[in-house]
Target: ABC transporter permease
Amino acid sequence: MTWSEMQPLLEQACVETLVMVGWSTLIAVAVGLPLGILLVLTDRNGLLQNTVVSKVLGQIVNVGRSMPFIILMVALTSFTRWVTGTSIGSEAAIVPLAISGIPFFARLVETAVREVDHGLVEAVQAMGGNTWTLVRKVLVPESLPSLIASTTTTVIALIGYSAMAGAVGGGGLGDFAVRYGYQRFDSELMWITVAILAVVISLIQFAGDLAARALHRRGARSGPGPKLLFLKAAEPAADVGKVA
Model:
């Protein structure tokens, strides 16, 4: 296959991979972030301690993480067809990719949120901050560098999953490498695909590390003081209202 013949196919495969990974990442983050925070809040000694809910959510996440992606993709064939109208192609691959990414990202979020200084949480509680205030003003901002790193890890994992999805008709670079490289015994084309994936992953990792370091440095300079001062400023106003 000449380069003029391969180029449009390769470009289409790259676009399909970016679309699959992009949409599945958005869904995984949108669902996995509150799920990970809920795992922390409902755990023992959490702000919303509920043993039953914590164990049920934890078991669901564990089952989702333990299932190999290829098996999950096949098991979700009927559900994928119901959602997208088809079980093959890049659009169909978004469904199993997103479902596999949700528990993966949720566990990373749980780990990141648990790293937040518990003394800061207790200080905000002492000032009268409720659960929503703690999540919005403390837990998420303080764990943001780790959350960015977790998102980077999730994106890279989903790129690997998308390549596996391509091997069973999911489209993208994986499908391109199997169809035009492996099946036609064109090792050069396969190595080109591997090189493209390596470059994309390296760029994503570099951008994610850069963003995480920048947020960490900014947080180190500002410290928790401004957040506590902001919350404390609301306290006198509340006390004045009570006196009146």
The CA atoms of residues 58 and 183 lie 42 Å apart.
